[in-house]
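Box 4.2: Ligand-aware structure prediction
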Amino acid sequence: MLLLKDEQATLDAGRQLGALLRQGDKLALSGTLGAGKTTFARGILEGLGYGEEVPSPTFAIVQQYELPETRIPVAHVDLYRIDDPDEIFELGLDDILDVGAMIVEWPDRMPDSFWRDALRIELEITGDDNRRLTWTAGS
Ligand code: ADP
Ligand code: MG
């Protein structure tokens, strides 16, 4: 468990994890709206050497990042707007995992079996700027 006292702490936590990401890694980011999932994902991308702006993928659903330094592409996914599970398979997430890693907001839109070997991270709002981060590793 980690207590994140402000947005910068969440970015820093993400950055540390980003430095460790490998091809095939699946990251499930849970938490209510505004919990800091996208902020944490920004930190991860920074940790992987990405220096540009990271928009929320709420509308694009899948945002792909080419990261020459680490040589693995990373997909930042937001399944919030998905209501039909069949739509998920059209996103080609398995193909992404063959070559890169994946960070997924609203992972509960996917069947639980998909997350069996994932790193699950949950963010909870514990105050105006305070967040609690907990994690479970599937493998
Ligand atoms: P989500 O993707 O979970 O909906 P966002 O990362 O888009 O959440 O938004 C989180 C919001 O909460 C931002 O406006 C951010 O500035 C604010 N915030 C305040 N404290 C924190 C914190 N400790 N970690 C992350 N975000 C925080
Ligand atoms: Mg978000």
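In the box above, the bound molecule is magnesium ion. The pocket of adenosine-5'-diphosphate (ligand 1) is lined by residues 4, 6-7, 9-10, 31, 33-39, 56, 105, 129, 131 (CB under 6 Å).
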